[in-house]
Amino acid sequence: MRVNLPTRQGRWRRAWSRARRMLNFSVDTARLVASRLRARQHDQVAVASARMPAYGVEAAGSFGAGRQADATHPAFRFEDVPQVSIVVPVYNHLEQTRHCLHALAQVGTSYTFEVIVVDDGSTDGSAEWLADCPQVRIQRMAENGGFVSACNAGARIARGRYLVFLNNDTEVTTGWLDALIGTFEQYPGCGLVGAKLIYPDGSLQEAGGIVFADGNACNYGRGGSPQDPRYNFVREVDYCSGACIALPTELFRTVGGFDLRYAPAYYEDTDLAFSVRAAGYSVIYQPRAEVVHFEGKTAGTDTSTGIKKFQRINREKFVVKQHHALVNQPLSQDFALSPARCATHRRGQRVLVVDADYPRVNHDSGSLRMFNMLVLLRELGCHVQFWATAAADRDDDARMLEQHGIELIVAPSRAQALSWWYAYGTSLDLIVLSRLPVALSALRLTRRYAAQAAVIFDTVDLHFLRIARGAAMHGNSAEAAWAEELRRSELELIRQADLTLVVSEYERTLLRELVPAAEVQVLSNVHPVHGRQSPFAAREGMLFLGNFEHEPNVDAVRWLVEEIMPRLRARLAGVSLHIVGYAGTEALAGFASGDVLVHGFVADLEPVLRSVKLALAPLRYGAGVKGKINMAMSHGVPVVTTSIGAEGMALANRRDAMIADDSDAFVDAIAELYINEQLWLTLSDHGLENVRLHFSVEAARVTLERILAAKSVLHALPMTHC
Questions:
Q1: CA dihedral 162, 54, 341, 369 (to 10 degrees)
Q2: Which pLDDT tens digit goes with each residue over 629-675?
Q3: Cα-flanking dihedrals φ and ψ of residue 686, to 5°?
Q4: CA atoms within 13 A on the CB side of 98
Q5: Predicted pLDDT at 585
Q6: Any idea what the Cα angle at residue 118 is, between residues 112 and 124, rounded to 5°?
Q7: In whole angstroms, what is the distance from residue 222 CA to residue 50 CA?
Q8: What gap in Å lies between CA 210 and CA 204, rounded to an integer?
C-alpha cells in the first residue's frame, strides 16, 4: 500500500529560497514610513490634560446620540452568595443609568453577581426609578459626596469575593466580566484588573494608563484603533481608569479603599493602583474586557475652575503621597520618544521572537515548545514580542498568546516590516530567530537595525541533518545535494549568531565538532508532566501521534502499517492502532483497516493518552527531539521507538523505553510490553522521570534563566527610564 500525503517540503523549499533573497529596501524608504507610523501613534495617545474624572458628571453630549435607553426595569437574578459585586455609582443622568443596567442584565457571564447602585444624592428621578428595580441593591447617600465616597459606600456592603466598579455612563459587552475576573485566575499575583475602554464612535479611549515621574498621567492609546495589536495583549500597567476596574473585595478593604483625600474626583483610581502594587500585587490591563464609555472626548484644559481644578490639586496630593514610587516612573519627555516603551516600562529585557507562523499548540511539538518558551520568558520578567512573518493577521492562536502577555507584531508587507525594524529595532535587548528560513531572512536586518541586541538562532532541529538522513535512506541524490546546501547555510548562521539553541545534547555535540567557536545551548521540548492517569488493566490499544506534514512521520506510519502491523497481528490479535495527528483525513484514510483507526486531528489528546496502553514511534530518520515521545511519557504511557526516535533524549532500552530498529525486533518489543505489566510500570515511571528531568517546564525555566543571565549573550545595556 502506497499513500501519498501532503507535506510541507515544497512550501519549505520555497520559503527557504525566498529567505535567501533577503529584504532589500532603501534606508530612506524605511525612515519615511517609520516617521509616519510614529506620527500616527503620537496622534493616537493623549496626555493627562485630557483625562476625564472617573465619575460621569462631566460627560459631554456624546451620550444618547442615536441611543435610546429602555424605560422598563432590568431584571437580575438574586444571589445569596455572589462571586462578584458590581458597584455602580450614580448622580443624576437617569438615562445613562438605565442603559448601563439593561446592558448588565442582557450580557451573559459564567460568574454570579450582584448589582449595587449607589445613588449619590440624585435629584432627577433616579431614586424613584431605582426603587422599582428588582434584585438591585440600592445604597442611598444623604448628600452628593462624589465618586470616591460613593464607591467606598458600595464596597462596604458588597458580598462578592470580587469588586467591580463600573461607571453608569458605560455599556458592557459580551464576555467583559468573564475576561475581567478570569484574569485573577490566570495571574495569581494580580490585585487589580482594568478594562479596555472604547468610545461610542469605535475609537479607543484607554488601554491602561501611564504615570510619569512628575505625577502627570495619560490614557495609553487614546484615539487609536481598539484592534491595534499594541493595545490587545495583557500587560502590567501603572493604573487603569476607575470607569471599569475589578479587584478582590478583601484587598480593596485592606488598602483602605479609595483614598478620601482625592474626593470628589481625579487620581483616586491612580492612587488605588499604586496602593495595590505597594501591597505586593500587580495591576493588569485586560483587553478582552471591552466596555463602551460614553464620556466626552474632551473636558477642556482649564484646571482653575469647576471639577477640573481637582486634577491639579489632586496631582499634587498624589505626588506627596506616592513620591517614593514615582522615582521609578518614566519621564514625560520619554513618552514623546517612545510611547510603547513607556507603556511597558514595568517589564525587564525586551525580547523579540520571530517565527514563520503562530504556534499551534495542538498541532506539533515545535509549536508547544515555542508557546512555552514565550510564556516562560514573560514569567521571567521580559517584555516579549512575537512576530509571525508569514501571518497576515491575528487568529485564535495569536489571541491566546496575547492573553498570556505576549505582544504581537503584525507587519504583513515588506515596507511595513522594514519600517518596524527602523522604528523599534533600537529598543530591543534580545532577538530570537526561529528556524532556518526565518533566520536567513531576518539576521541581516537585526544586525543593521538592532545592532545593540543579542541574537539567538533557534534551530528547532538541525534541518540539514534531517534532510540528509532522509536522502540517505531513500537514495535520493537531489535531496542529498539540497541537504549539503542547507548545511552550509545553517552552519554559517550558527557562526554569526551570538548563541544557538538546539534541542538535544546529541546536536550540541555535533555542532561543537562542526563549529567549535560557536556558543551552543540546549533548550529542548517543553511539556507539563501530567502523570499516569489510569492503570495498566484499564488500557487497550496503541497510538501513533504526529504531524503528517512532517515527512519522517509519513515514512514511520508507512513502515508501521505495511511491515510491522502484519507481523504483530499474529502475536497480538485484535489490538487496535490509533493514528492521530494533524493532516488531511482523506489522505490518511488509505492507511485505515479493521484494526488501524485513522482519527486525523484531535484537539484534546488527554482522553486518548488516558486510554491507550502503548505509544509507537517507529521513526527511521529525522533530527531533534521527538515531541510524540515526550507527550506520551508525560502522561505515563510507555513508548516503543527506534534509535533515531530515542536520539538525544537520554533514554535507555528497557528502562525508559523499548528501542528497536528492525521490523522483527520492533514487533517483539511491542508484544512483550503490551502484556508485561511490571515492565510497563517500569517504563511508565522512568518515562515520567525522564520528562521531569529534561523536558519539563521547570527544566526549560532553568535554561532560560541561565541564558538571560549570561552577560556574554545579553550584552545590551538597559535603557534609562522608559
A1: 20
A2: 999 999 999 999 999 999 999 999 999 999 999 999 999 999 999 99
A3: -70, -30
A4: 18
A5: 61
A6: 125
A7: 10
A8: 15
How far is Cα 662 from Cα 672, in angstroms, rounded to an integer? 16
Measured distance CA(346)–CA(55) in Å, rounded: 28
Nearest to 173 by CA among 252, 117, 226: 226
Cα dihedral sign for 223, 227, 228, 232? positive
Instruction: State how beta strands 162-166 and 170-172 pair.
Output: unpaired
CA distance 88 to 150: 9
- Where does residue 304 rank: exposed (0-12), middle (13-18), buried (19+ CB within 10 A)? exposed
CA angle 377, 383, 387 (to 5 degrees): 85
DSSP of 279-312: TT-EEEEEEEEEEEE---S---S-TTSTTTHHHH
| SS3 state at 667 | helix
Tell me the DSSP string of 165-211. Answer: EE-TTEEE-TTHHHHHHHHHHH-TTEEEEEEEEE-TTS-EEESSEEE
Q: Which residues of 116-151 are buried (b: 16+ CB within 10 A; e: fewer)?
A: bbbbbbbeeebbebbeebeebbebebeebbbbbbbb
Closest-CA residue to 244 (of 457, 100, 399, 434)? 100
d(CA 172, CA 192): 18
How far is the C-alpha of 51 from the C-alpha of 48, rounded, in Å?
5
What distance in Å separates the CA atoms of residue 431 and residue 350, rounded to the nearest whole number?
9
How far, in Å, CA of 368 to CA of 376, rounded? 12
More confident residue, 337 or 654: 654
Q: Which grid cell sits at 56?
A: 460621569
Would you tell me how many other CB atoms lie within 10 Å of the CB of residue 594? 8
Share of the chain above pLDDT 90, in %: 74
Report the sign of the C-alpha dihedral through residues 94, 95, 98, 99, in that order. Answer: negative
Single-letter amino acid, residue 211: V
**Residue whose C-alpha is closest to residue 115's, from 96, 134, 129:** 134
Name the one residue in this structure whose C-alpha cell is 525587564: 348
Contact criterion met (CB below 8 Å) for 561 and 663:
no
Single-letter residue type at 277: R
Question: How far is the C-alpha of 272 from the C-alpha of 257, rounded, in Å?
Answer: 7
Q: What is the DSSP letter of 260?
A: G
CA 169 vs CA 139, 193, 263, 431, 609: distances in Å: 18, 19, 19, 44, 51
Rounded to whole angstroms, the Cα distance separating 384 from 144 reads 46
Query: What is d(CA 207, CA 204) in angstroms, rounded to the nearest whole number?
Result: 8
pLDDT at residue 584 is higher than 70: no
Q: Quick check: 75 and 134 in contact, CB under 8 A?
A: yes
Band of pLDDT at residue 15, cut at 50, 70 and 90: low
Cα–Cα distance, 321 to 54 (Å, whole number): 20
Q: How far apart are CA 285 and CA 140, in angstroms?
A: 31
Name the residue with cell 538525544. 648
What is the biggest distance separating any 2 CA atoms in the chain, rounded to whole angstroms?
Answer: 93
> In the structure grid, which three cell numbers stand for residue 156, read together?
462596604
245 DSSP β-pair partners: 165, 194
Mean pLDDT lowest among 93-97, 368-372, 390-394: 390-394
The whole-model pTM stands at: 0.86
Quote the CA–CA distance of 455 and 439 in Å, as a whole number. Answer: 10
Q: What average pLDDT does the chain have?
A: 88
Grid cell for residue 534: 489510569
pLDDT for residue 580 is more than 50: yes
- Which pLDDT does position 22 carry in this prediction? 40
Q: Please determine, for residue 71, whether its predicted confidence score (pLDDT) is greater than 80.
A: no
Cα angle 46-408-224, degrees, rounded to a multiple of 5: 25
Nearest to 691 by CA among 640, 626, 633: 633
Question: Using DSSP, how many helices (H) and how many strands (E) does the chain show?
Answer: 28, 26
pLDDT at 572: 93
**Residue in 237, 323, 315, 244 with CA at minimum distance from that of residue 281:** 237
Name all domains of the chain by residue range, CATH numbers in brackets.
46-343 (3.90.550.10), 347-522 (3.40.50.2000), 536-695 (3.40.50.2000)
